[in-house]
Design a protein that fits this description.
This protein has 178 residues and is α+β, with helices and mostly antiparallel strands. The chain is built from four helices and six strands.
């Protein structure tokens, strides 16, 4: 139960990190972009093909050419700091290199997200320990079983916090190299 929650926390961290732009082009930065498709907000990847022909450029090809203006509008309102331009058939986006100041801001943002994830993991451990103590008080498990399960939960916590640290370190390196 606790492990499942911890795994979801790590998945959420990865998803949030995908939204942080680095200096290189990546289709993941468009994951949260929603396009108004006949009155319905649809994910960009369901209304267009997103390709990365070069390290600093993105080409978005709509399945329906009439959506090109809506896609452009959605990218601008997603506040990604990108300027799309269209030629009537495709949208081209040049990914500008990040300034040193912007890189520091992004690293700080990533650090905050990682710390929130570590806090979530520790809260899951605390909740798990409280459940174990209730079970022991209710006579469902012995004191020895309680100690064994608490140790298992601590090892699980350490494992997931180490995984979060590894993911954060990789993201920081990615942002700084950009």
């Amino acid at each position: 139960m606790s492990e499942e929650k911890m795994q979801k926390t790590v998945e959420s961290l990865k998803s949030q990190f995908n939204g942080i732009r680095t200096g290189r082009a990546s289709s993941a930065i468009f994951d949260k972009v929603r396009v108004d498709y006949y009155g319905t907000k649809s994910p960009l990847n369901q209304v267009a093909t997103v390709s990365i022909p070069e390290a600093r450029s993105v080409v978005i090809q709509p399945f329906d050419k009439s959506l090109i203006v809506e896609i452009e509008k959605a990218i601008l309102t997603a506040d990604l700091g990108l300027n799309p331009s269209n030629d009537g058939k495709v949208i081209r986006i040049s990914i500008p290199p990040l300034t040193a100041e912007r890189r520091k801001e992004l690293v700080k943002q990533a650090k905050t997200i990682a710390e929130n994830s570590r806090t979530s993991i520790r809260n899951i451990r605390r909740d798990g320990n409280e459940e174990l103590k209730k079970s022991q008080k209710a006579g469902e498990i012995t004191e020895d079983e309680l100690k064994t399960e608490e140790d298992k939960l601590q090892k699980l916590t350490d494992k997931y916090i180490a995984e979060i640290n590894k993911i954060y370190d990789a993201k920081e390196k990615d942002i700084m190299e950009g």
